[in-house]
Design a protein that fits this description.
The protein is of the alpha+beta class. The chain is built from 14 helices and 26 strands. Helix 1 runs antiparallel to helix 7. The chain is globular, with a radius of gyration of 23 Å. This is L-gulonolactone oxidase.
Length: 594
Amino acid sequence: MKHLKYQKNVIAKCIFFIMIICMVNCSPPEDPIKCTLKNSNCTITNTYGAFPDRSICRAAKVVYPTTEEELILAVANATMSNTKMKVATRTSHSIPKLVCPEGDNGLLISTKYLNRTLDVNVSSMTMTVESGMTLRQLINDAAKSNLALPYAPYWWGLTIGGMMGTGAHGSSLWGLGSQVHDYVIQLRIVTPATAEEGYAKVRTLEIGNPELDAAKVSLGVLGVISQVTLKLQPLFKRSVTYVTRNDSNFGDEAITFGRQHEYADFTWYPSQKQVVYRIDDRVATNTSGNGLLDFPGFRSTASLILSSLRIAEETEETLSDADGKCTNGNFTTSILKTMAYGLTNNGIFFTGYPVVGYHNRLQASGTCLDSLEDLTITACPWDPRVKSLFFHQTTFSISLSQVKSFIEDVQKLVTLVPKSLCGLDMYNGILMRYVTASTAYLGKQEDALDFDITYYRSKNPMSPRLYEDILEEIEQIAMFKYGALPHWGKNRNVAFDGVINKYKNATKFLKVKNKYDPQGLFSSSWTDQILGLNGEVVTVDKEGCALEGLCICSQDSHCAPEKNYFCRPGKVYEKSRVCTKVDTNKEFTAGVSF
């Protein structure tokens, strides 16, 4: 008991410091591409240091074009030699294996140095940028001309090309919605071509060309986007207030709240039965205020603190200490609330709501990204070079017409197992953002709420998580009972099982894919799997596969029977199959298959 109390004190203190420390100097994320020779014999990973299946992706070579002409040359050379290609971004934030070329002999094309603003037209309110530009650069460059991208993700380390590849978004049901790609009015994409065309060609796609709807969310399988033109708006101010409420009426309010406030979102803590409502709207530009967002979870943090947090969490998992998770989850959410979730009224201090400021200062953050190297004394909280946070992300959108039922199903699980979702609170609960139906062939199919769930991942792929079954059931309820659409840039394998059948224009997308890249040089086994091509399946049938979301368990060996975790039906959704801990004092039938 003394040991448990010590662990709780350690994690409480560390959470406090992770929230209040914001270093000026920090080790920014390293290049996800590493080569043993100069730009040859390379490996690539994501910013978290691990793909869902923990595999290592290799490539024979990487190129770093600095102009569109150099990009064309790279694609032409690869096409001429029939070499597989994949596009890589400067920080590689996609969790699935979208950046992995096939085999060991492929080519990586990094957009790291394609990061310039090419044109800003104030009168037409358009901006043309290269695809490797980060969201932060775009926001800042637009603001210099008193313009704004109206909606965007909350992390500014994403690139324009990366956001379009995965359909990244903010939160809104207003205007064209919160997805960045729906504000693209023109793009240039370099694709393979015939020998007569020089093995590569630039295609310019504009509004009115149906092929733009394929390229707006492309998964990187059409070619390399070189330039993007966005439709912007005059820079404006917003007023933000966070309000915490009981979740008893949350199902009904989740349907209507997004129509009431332009930038509405939620942070839900199911185990606490609480929801934080974001009341966020535009206000007149002469409204007083110079607010700033610097979200604590995106700040640089001392590596020693990150290590202490991870050790404490691993100890709670080892000891099945649900009470410890609940205590520390409550402490985390309390500190975030005290810190106004990273908002300040003047860039320094928080003095009270509402926080009013210009849109470019409130729409995204990520100060750990833009820092000097300090030998990893400090780092982004997920930096794999140090002992840091290591997690799964299950992220999906559910139609507004079904959101209430889904929320009620999650609440039923909490009623049955009250402490089961305390671990989510240590990762700031479930972030919920509004999205709208898109014309993009692989974009959102209808107005929906996006649920972003972050939770503990073991360093040992064969080690079950505490309350593993509850999160697995939530995942399966969403994907299979309610037909949720997974976020293309997040999630475990099971979320993509049969996913292409959920898109009404999938055939149109595949037609454009075959036109642009008939040899499939920008495709891989992973993209073939999620696109349902060549008989490929996204799930993996092997021992322990369900523990990491590589499969849905159908037999006990998919779980960890040696640790008393067996494949059983879920508690609420009768069709779900989850790895659950069986009380060895109770009778059960080993080896049951469903």
